[in-house]
Design brief:
Helix content is 49%, strand content 12%. The protein is an alpha/beta fold. 44% of the residues are buried.
């Protein structure tokens, strides 16, 4: 029997390719995006791969709509076996430059939306003692980075939430994990919110932007990242934390073995030198 997979943020980038790859592997994929008029690229990719997708509208920060969608999918398919929280949004700015509204927006998209969808699918998975919940975070969920205060804060938060949940969910046959990409060449960069008034931070921000532009110029392709997400979603050797590339593994490892904080400090300091 095919797994029913729900994935958010599929209009472009790695979410698009993950959705198509999961369908190619035999899953019934429900691919969501805020505006289904932007589904052309996804549907073209699915057609080229010879697969069909169930494309649905979902703004992940609209919790009532998310609840209705999950109810509709359970009515249509009987269950949800795999949830991939892929939708996300970036934000460039350090504490002084950020409004509380901007910080809240990062929490809404990158933390509360995955938490809400996970809560919605958990009861059915728990009752069936079967399911997998994956949240695409970032290496920014393990390494705090200059001018990424709100973004990394939200990603750290969702990783902590999911790691805590994983220990309990596994007792009911539900696997919970996070997927950490590094830079991926996609529309994510163009969608990043940036500060309008840089003030005293201009020199540091210029150095950060230059470094980040270089990183994305040599980024993992969205096709490769999407395939990695599909691999993790369907693997028999499940682990809580996974990365989508060797570069992401090396990046995340800087922090995960950093007991006193000095490795991360030395790693990121040159970015704004």
């Amino acid at each position: 029997m095919s797994d029913i997979a729900l994935i958010t943020g599929t209009s472009s980038g790695m979410g698009l390719f993950a959705a198509v790859e999961l369908a190619r592997r035999g899953c019934q994929v429900v691919a969501t995006m805020r505006d289904t008029s932007r589904a052309t690229e996804l549907l073209d990719a699915a057609s080229q791969a010879g697969v069909e997708l169930d494309v649905r509208a979902l703004d992940v920060v609209d919790h009532d709509t998310a609840s209705r969608l999950v109810d509709e999918l359970i009515a249509a398919y009987g269950r949800i076996d795999i949830l991939i929280n892929n939708a996300g949004q970036g934000c460039v700015g350090t504490a002084e430059q950020l409004s509380l509204a901007q910080i809240q927006a990062q929490l809404d998209v990158n933390f509360l939306a995955p938490v809400n969808l996970s809560k919605l699918v958990l009861p059915g998975m728990r009752e069936r003692r079967h399911g997998r919940i994956l949240t695409v975070t970032s290496v920014g969920g393990t390494v705090g980075q200059p001018f990424a205060d709100a973004y990394c804060g939200a990603k750290f938060a969702v990783e902590g939430f999911m790691q805590s949940l994983a220990a309990v969910a596994e007792h009911f046959g539900v696997q919970v994990g996070v997927i950490e990409p590094a830079a991926v060449a996609s529309q994510f960069v163009s969608n990043v919110e940036r500060p309008s008034d840089v003030g005293a931070y201009a020199r540091l921000l210029d150095a950060y932007v230059a470094r980040t532009t270089g990183a994305f110029a040599n980024a993992q392709t969205p096709e490769s990242a999407g395939k990695a997400i599909a691999d993790i979603a369907t693997t028999h050797d499940f682990t809580f934390r996974s990365q989508t590339s060797e570069a992401a593994t090396a990046f995340a490892g800087v922090s995960l073995a950093d007991l006193d904080g000095s490795r991360v400090r030395n790693f990121t300091a040159p970015w704004i030198a």
